[in-house]
Amino acid sequence: MSTPFLPVVAGHAEGAGAMxxxxxxxxxxxxxxxxxxxxxxxxxxxxxxxxxxxVWGGTTVxxxxxxxxxIVRWLRDDPSQRYDYCSDVTAVEFRDxxxxxxxxxxxxxxPFRRFLRLKALIPRGEALVVPSIWDIHKGVDWLExxxxxxxxxxFEGHPDLRRILMWExxxxxxxxxxxxxxRGRFSRSEQLRQALAQNPEAKYSMEELSIAEAFEDLPAEMxxxxxxxxxxxx
Amino acid sequence: xxxTKRTVDVQLSTTGxxxxxxxxxxxxxxxxxxxxxxxxxxxxxxxxxxxDHMLINIGPQHPATHGVLRLVLExxxxxxxxxxxxxxxxxxxxxKIGEYRQYxxxxxxTDREDYLNSxxxxxxxxxxxxxxxxxxxxxxxxxxxxxxxxxxxxxSHCVWLGTFCIDxxxxxxFLWIFQQRERVYSMLESWIGARLTTTLxxxxxxxxxxxxxxxxxxxxxxxxxPKVLAECDAMLTKNAIWVGRTIGLGAMSADEAVNYGLSGxxxxxxxxxxDVRKDFPYLDYETYDFDIAVGQAGxxxxxxxxxxxxxxxxxxILEQAPRRLPDGPVNVxxxxxxxxxxxxxxxxxxxxIHHFKQVMEGPRPxxxxxxxxxxSPKGExxxxxxxxxxxxxVRWRIRPPSFVNLAAIPKMVEGHLLSDVIxxxxxxxxxxxxxxx
Lengths: 234, 437
What we know:
Oligomer: heterodimer
Largest sheet of chain A: 5 strands, mixed
Order of helices and strands of chain A: HEEHEEEEHEHHH
Number of strands of chain B: 12
Distance between the termini of chain A: 35 Å
Radius of gyration of chain A: 22 Å
Largest sheet of chain B: 3 strands, antiparallel
Strand order of the largest sheet of chain A: 1-2-5-4-3
Largest interface: A-B, 66 and 73 residues
Structural class of chain A: alpha/beta
Strand content of chain B: 5-15%
């Protein structure tokens, strides 16, 4: 960690003229006070900041996809910003199939009590790849994996990007994409057939077996199947 | 391994009988100065022992994993070298289903994700949807929602305390605290008719106003619950076995806790005073007088202390809330979202049209997006909703606090003993319904 965390006593925030926060009332649909981070980002990353909007009181900054890692790092390390907490990483696909897929980062600055939404757009037809911010916020590990699992968005730089909620051999695609039907791609009978065809013995991945040097203890027939590349999961 | 060296004063004693059959504390170990014997963190496991590593699988069907969590552990003797968690056994696709449901129809799904905190989830979802609709709820509704949120915090922490005790080997507090949880469920039943899956809120209001006699029940509960809590406290907090099993385990420093995105009691136990109710308030929480508990070491024992304090603080809020409960309507006067009364819907043309439009088409929020977070018992629970102007959300995202908290478990258990994995896992307070969704 490069920035030491200074704990803030809730209700008595110090520094930068922070006041006791109050419940927002009558939040306007558009407009309202803009998060100061938006102006700072414009000054710092002029070309990489595409658009800034305030919707229902939340400031959204749409940034250049390739610059996300640098922007999040600057937001965390700059003493006037200190966005040290990443609440959420997710994506939005619209029903309009022409519209770009949005990857959304919800950041919080605990010392300054600010909330910022970063977005990167992936236009249709382009590869679903965005930079990972795992090296900055370790907490996004599973969030990015889930986003990959549900949308198929690859986070470049994530050390262990694999499915998390669906199982490893899941073949139907990415469930939260709009072209994925609510009941799944395969018929119920096909889903049942696949479930029954799974090998109940093969509960461990090759990685897990190799770390524990347990591969030699397996039955010869199972060793043979695993070594020929059969994918196993839970 | 970062074990925190610190001491806690404990009384090494057991419960026995005196000559007339009355229970009393029998000291086990006394030093010259008195009964207090300091306990320190257990020594680190011995390094450099020869032998093969072993692969141990815990779960998914294991009572100590609090649901269907599966942990694959690589052990060196009894010490955990590596932990690979597997989740997803309970995945139901809530977020996908939400894209095919109107806003009020999603509320029953929020009951079922973090099912120990159903009223709190209902409140959180309603707040998010109201932000998206641009609705200001009534003052009475706000106070009722505060009551619901705090009752649900008590339920959730009661379950946590009971199961945490069982995981560590103390059975009695489980029975004591579950009786209290039952009382809260009875209150909720009198309020909305359901116990576990409450569906308490609607967009723009509540499913029902509180019934007659509810505030008396609440007063009664607020009077008697602290006594039970004090008994649990006396049983556990300075119990030598308890402290020995929990102190120094799974420590996270403040920097690490923030970096790993922990929230709720997990984050506060590490010394970071972040509570959504104080830092990003909602429902006028800034006007209530309550404190948030902050730990220092960030280990299992501190998480226990923080959650015990969080069982006491809701009582303070629940004492203030009924006193400020104003008269007046619960639901907003907005025909876009609130159904007209049935009697009017069958006799008045306007009301019938509103009723028909709402039931058949559903309320339509304007195009926009909103992320609203509340302090759930597990941590920061956020609902992110995106509307494209139709009656169903384009995206309904749950920010699950236990999911992010659980992601730090490899960091917390590595270097500890296998038996401590159970204690650390219990201290995270996970609900798999919320993690897998």
